[in-house]
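Entry 14. Ran structure prediction on the chain below.
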Amino acid sequence: MSAINRFHEVANDALVAISDHLLPEAKLTLVIYTPGEPEQDIVLKGPGADADEVVNTLRRRGGLSLDGENAYKLGLCDVVVGSLACGKQNNNPPPVNHWGQQFWDIGRAEGALQEELVQALRLARKELDACQRVIHYAGGFTPAYVDYAQAAIKVADTVLAKIPA
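Output, C-alpha cells:
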C-alpha cells in the first residue's frame, strides 16, 4: 500500500471516529493543504457535507471575510466587473443561465441609458444651436440669453466630445 493510500485510510478512520462523537446533524470535512502547492491539496468530505456550508463556516468562524484577499474573490470580482463592462458595451453576453447574466443586464441597462442620454443631449444641442442661429440672423434678442445659450452649447460639446459618434 502506498503512503498516500495509507494516509487516506488513516484519515478516513480518524474522521469516522470523530463523527461518532458529533451531533447527529453535524457534518465533517477535513482539508489539508501545502501553501504554494495546490496539487497536494486534500479534501475529505464526510457523508452529506455541503461545500457551500463549509465555506460559510470558514467565513463565520475562520476569518474568511469579504475584506481579505484571496484568488477566488479576486477572480469573482473580475467576472462581475467584466460582466458589467461587457453589458454596458452590449457585447460578449454570458452563456444562457450563467450567474453573471444579472451583472451583464445591469451594465446593459446603464449602457442603454447612456446612449439615450447622449441622443437627447445631441438633439438638445442641435436645436439650441438652431435657435441661436435664428436669433443671430434676426438681429438678436437679449444678449444675456444668447450668452447663456452659447455657454450651454459649449458644455454639451465638451461632454459629447467624450462620447464616440
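Strands lie at 29-32, 42-45. Will compare against last week's run tomorrow.
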